[in-house]
What we know:
- The protein has helices at about 35-55, 60-75, 85-95, 100-120, 125-130, 160-170, 180-195, 200, 245-255, 285-300, 310-325, 330-335, 340-345, 360, 410-425, 430-435, and strands at about 1-5, 10, 210, 220, 235-240, 270-275, 280-285.
- By secondary structure, the chain is mainly α.
- Among the domains are: about 35-130; about 160-365, hpI Integrase, Chain A.
- The strands form three sheets. Strands 3-4-5 form a three-stranded antiparallel sheet. Strands 1-2 form a two-stranded antiparallel sheet. Strands 6-7 form a two-stranded antiparallel ribbon.
- The chain is elongated.
Amino acid sequence: MFITGLPGSVKARRPRLSLAVVRDLREARAPAGPEELAAFETDVLAGFVLARAAAGLADGTISSDVVHLEQVRAWFGRPLWEMEPADADAYFGTVLRDAAKGTRLARSQTLRTYFLFLEIRHQIEIHQLTGRVAECPIDEMNRPRGAGRAALRIPPSAVQVAALFAGWRAELATCRKFSPAARNYAAARLMGDVGLRVNEASHLDLDDIKWDLGPFGKLHVRQGKGARGSGPRERMVPLIRNAGATLRWFIEDVWCCFDEDHDRPGAPLFCSERRNADGTAARVGNETLRSALAAAAAAHLPDWPHRVTPHVLRHFCASQLYLGGMDLVAIQQTLGHAWVATTMNYTSTPPTSRMPGSPARNAPPSACRACCHDDAPPPRRVPRRAPAPATGNGRRSDEVEPAPGRRQPRHLEGQRAAADARRRRPGDQRREDVRAVVRPPGQRQAR
């Protein structure tokens, strides 16, 4: 192509496309062998555990995730990054077809979390070693459904729980080992009174009891974990429903049977009979408290058809607080729930207690039997203020008159006249009052 019409014509050439050799400057790696892949898989799993620990998850949650991954790996027979959606279909559709809904949900969530870790941390290394691109096999088509509302637990009634603890308390006088039995009894009473989780109760220290806070004292709940590995729910729990009296009896009469140093930092509230390496009392385990409560319920509550667990006592505490007049937000803060909807599932009360005429739900907060002692005086009700009597001109004495020299507001003139007419005339005079106040159609009001 030439450009003409100008002195000294210039020839413009079109650019030509050409191919060039591009060399990868990264270090070339030979295909990995079976031993190298096995070592790499172990390192990846160790990194996954460390990352979950850095995120603040409890050891039990991390161990549960590792168990889920190991079971899937044992079924698959190859590294998990080679798993495809068809493999997940076969596993969840055949192997876990009849498994519990919670098991299916937990295993699928663990797989999704593990593959997210692979995509963020080891995507390039897996491609260099195997030539594969790690992709989560759980998608919207095969993801297990059913993450709905939690199961409703109906706790025993107040009479049944009182019978349980009365029989358990009488058993302490004749039991073979007093101190462990009294410890289990005090821990169960505390969980039933203030709604602690079993891992929160077992992790309490002596220093967590704040006797001088509030009218009853408070518990500083620092450790333990919520549902689904959500971590500790740190809060201050008031020692209501005579929980303070139970703790005082336990600390003054029972705790000295396990340890002698009350001032030792980190001394557990509920001690075990085992000893630490330095000779101090160790902390009681969760299973010890669970098994002791189950044995006591089987002995002193034989008519109850279901198991009595610490979580059932937690539901019982929520129901009793709600029946006593405590509002849902206060119960949520006491139990350490993240959502008030969860607290609503815990308040399993009879239908009659939620009727508008129920005296328990209509009682003022100061009348809450869950927060007051039995010998406390009943709350004083303030009577309603009676309306002021009418004066001679038909108006009540508490009505505000216009200021001197000011006229009545225009929009109130007709209403005042109609009210005066109704007060002076006996019987039903509504039609005459309306005729006297409302102007006829077409007549304008004089200004």
